Amino acid sequence: MVFVTFFVSCEKIFELKKMKCQTGKNSYSTKSLAETALIDIHIHRNFPPEQGPQDVYQCEFCGEWHFTSKSTSRNVRLQEMIDSGEMRRLQQARRWE
What we know:
Blueprint: H1 2-18, H2 31-44, E1 55-58, E2 65-68, H3 76-84, H4 86-96
Antiparallel strand pairs: 1-2
C-alpha cells in the first residue's frame, strides 16, 4: 500500500511540474538539460534534421527552458551532432534496441 501511495504522490508532483508553465509545454530547469532533451527527442523519434524542434529558449512566463520549432537557426549542439554523423549513428542504433 505504501508503494502505491508513493507512486501516486510522485505522479502528482510530476504533473504539477509539467503544468508549471502556462504555455503547457514541457519545462527544463537549465539550458543544458533542455539541449540534452532536444537531442534525445531527435534520436528517439528519428526526426530528419529539418523536422521536429530545432532549438531551446528561455520562457518569458516561467523562466524555464522549452523547445521551439520556429527558430531561425538550429541549436549548436544539435547541429554538431548532425554534421558529425553522430545523430544518424545514434538513430540507427536506436532502431536495433
